[in-house]
């Protein structure tokens, strides 16, 4: 097994952040090309009402296609039990339900308090538990705005720890931490990961979802590596960008992340040359959208060798 799992979230996080709606066939071609490059987990969409996110209205069809790739973990975002039921019916392997550490953010975006989101988590956990063991999806609770909120500002570490514990009690298999706002810095990543792991167990927090809004995305990855994180979300070409920070990618850029990890001797299972060529799919389908990444622009260093 490779050292690090990279979870490609572009088809969900990237596409929900841009106005154009990518046709289902193009989403499937994107997924196929990433799988061919060695990507083993892809968040392919979100089960939210189509009226809220028309970009992701075809998620069930995309899940059905993605499931045709043996060995690929097909992940989706679900905001509530209703979304989870649809995700399970479609055959998703992994469900992620976000719980915003900032209650103001939660009320404004999901129109739900922490207690109400935790009620949904319990309902989803019951749905998941009712599935036959062979097809039971993995259920992750993701603490979003964990490193700061664009409405509330600083988020207390103790609040994130409390919510991580509440998610575990409510029945998730695992907790993730999301820097939704791109506020995180490396010292904060080390500190928060340690605090949450101490509270819920090292094996219950293995993944980080980072944005590169302020240019600290890869520095935050290194901080995560230092405290034992082994899964990182990223999006091809940093699709989505940040409307308030021209030049800043959305999620951390998958291509740059793979380059950094492989150059550090950490295997990802991903063929970087093939991954770089996947950009052609997006460039052709989304001609107006900027694609980010330093490695794609600069090329690989002479003599670069991937990790063994
Ligand atoms: Zn995100």
In short:
The chain is an alpha/beta fold.
Description:
This protein is α/β, with parallel strands linked by helices. Helix content is 42%, strand content 13%. It has a single domain (5-298), classed as Aldolase class I (TIM Barrel, Alpha-Beta Barrel). It has twelve helices and eight strands. It has an eight-stranded parallel beta barrel, surrounded by eight helices. Strand 6, helix 8 (186-200) and strand 7 (207-209) form a beta-alpha-beta unit. The chain is globular. The model has no long low-confidence stretch (mean pLDDT 96). Bound molecules: zinc ion. Zinc ion binds at residues 13, 178, 180, 209, 211, 251.
Element layout with pairings:
Blueprint lengths: L4 E4 L1 H7 L7 H14 L3 E6 L12 H8 L6 E5 L3 H10 L3 E7 L2 H7 L4 H16 L8 E7 L12 H14 L3 E5 L7 H15 L6 E3 L7 H10 L4 E4 L19 H10 L8 H14 L8 H5 L10
Parallel strand pairs: 1-2, 1-8, 2-3, 3-4, 4-5, 5-6, 6-7, 7-8
């Amino acid at each position: 097994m490779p050292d690090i799992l990279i979870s490609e979230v572009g088809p969900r996080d990237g596409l929900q952040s841009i106005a154009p709606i990518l046709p289902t066939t193009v989403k499937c071609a994107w997924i196929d090309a990433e799988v061919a490059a060695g990507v083993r987990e892809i968040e392919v969409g979100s089960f939210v009402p189509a009226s809220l996110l028309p970009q992701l209205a075809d998620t069930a069809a995309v899940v059905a296609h993605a499931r045709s790739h043996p060995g690929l973990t097909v992940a989706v975002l679900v905001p509530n039990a209703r979304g989870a039921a649809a995700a399970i019916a479609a055959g998703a392997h992994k469900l992620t339900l976000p719980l915003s550490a900032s209650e103001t953010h939660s009320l404004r975006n999901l129109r739900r308090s922490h207690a109400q989101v935790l009620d949904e988590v319990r309902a989803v956990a019951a749905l998941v538990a009712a599935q036959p063991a062979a097809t039971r999806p993995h259920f992750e609770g993701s603490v979003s705005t964990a490193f700061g909120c664009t409405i509330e500002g600083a988020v207390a570490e103790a609040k994130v720890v409390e919510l991580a514990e509440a998610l575990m009690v409510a029945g998730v298999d695992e907790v993730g931490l999301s820097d939704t706002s791109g506020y995180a810095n490396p010292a904060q990543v080390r500190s928060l990961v340690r605090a949450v792991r101490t509270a819920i167990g090292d094996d219950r927090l293995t993944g980080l979802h980072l944005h590169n809004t302020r240019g600290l995305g890869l520095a935050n990855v290194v901080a995560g590596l230092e405290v034992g994180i082994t899964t990182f979300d990223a999006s091809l070409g940093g699709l989505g960008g940040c409307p308030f920070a021209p030049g800043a990618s959305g999620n951390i850029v998958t291509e740059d992340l793979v380059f950094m990890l492989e150059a550090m001797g950490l295997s990802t299972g991903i063929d970087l040359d093939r991954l770089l060529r996947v950009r052609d799919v997006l460039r052709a389908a989304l001609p107006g959208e900027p694609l980010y990444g330093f490695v794609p622009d600069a090329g690989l260093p002479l003599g670069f060798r991937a990790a063994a």
